[in-house]
Amino acid sequence: METAVFAPEDIEKNKTMAGLAYIIFFLPLVACPDSKFARYHANQGLALLIVSLVGSFILGMIPIIGWLLLPLFSILVLILAIVGLVNGLNGKVKDLPLIGKFKLLK
């Protein structure tokens, strides 16, 4: 997605909420429900949360190899969350790698 899709006023006003979406995905939906920019980042945060939960569950159930891969997966999720948080705080609209194309919120 491109920044041109969102109003510059919306981006400037809701940067903080967009960044917080990667920590608590539903916070922007409650605090600024009319912001398309914040909703975009809330969607990215929700997709990251779901991938994190499913991936952790699956890797946790696989003996030995899964247990060895789980810390690496957790680091990957942390890196993606930091990238999303920084993008949100900087007013950027960039899909997260690997999971950014999922549209869960409308």
Structural class based on helices, strands and sheet pairing:
mainly alpha
- Portion in beta strands: under 5%
Q: Span from first to last CA?
A: 14 Å
Main pleated sheet: none
Report the total helices: 5
Number of domains: 1
SSE series:
HHHHH
Shape from CA axes? elongated
Task: Give the overall pLDDT as a whole number.
Answer: 93
Helical fraction equals 55-70%
Q: Supply Rg.
A: 15 Å
Low-confidence parts? none
Oligomer: single chain
Tell me the total number of β-strands. Answer: 0
In short:
The protein is mainly alpha-helical. The protein has helices at about 10-15, 15-20, 25-30, 35-60, 65-90.
How does the SSE layout of this entry go?
Blueprint: H1 8-13, H2 15-20, H3 27-31, H4 36-61, H5 65-89
Note down, in words, how this protein is organized.
It is elongated and about 50 Å long. It has helices at 8-13, 15-20, 27-31, 36-61, 65-89. The chain has 106 residues and is mainly alpha-helical. The protein is 64% helix and 0% strand. The mean pLDDT is 93. Helix 4 (36-61) runs antiparallel to helix 5. It has one domain (3-89). The two termini are 14 Å apart.
Characteristic terms for this protein:
mainly alpha
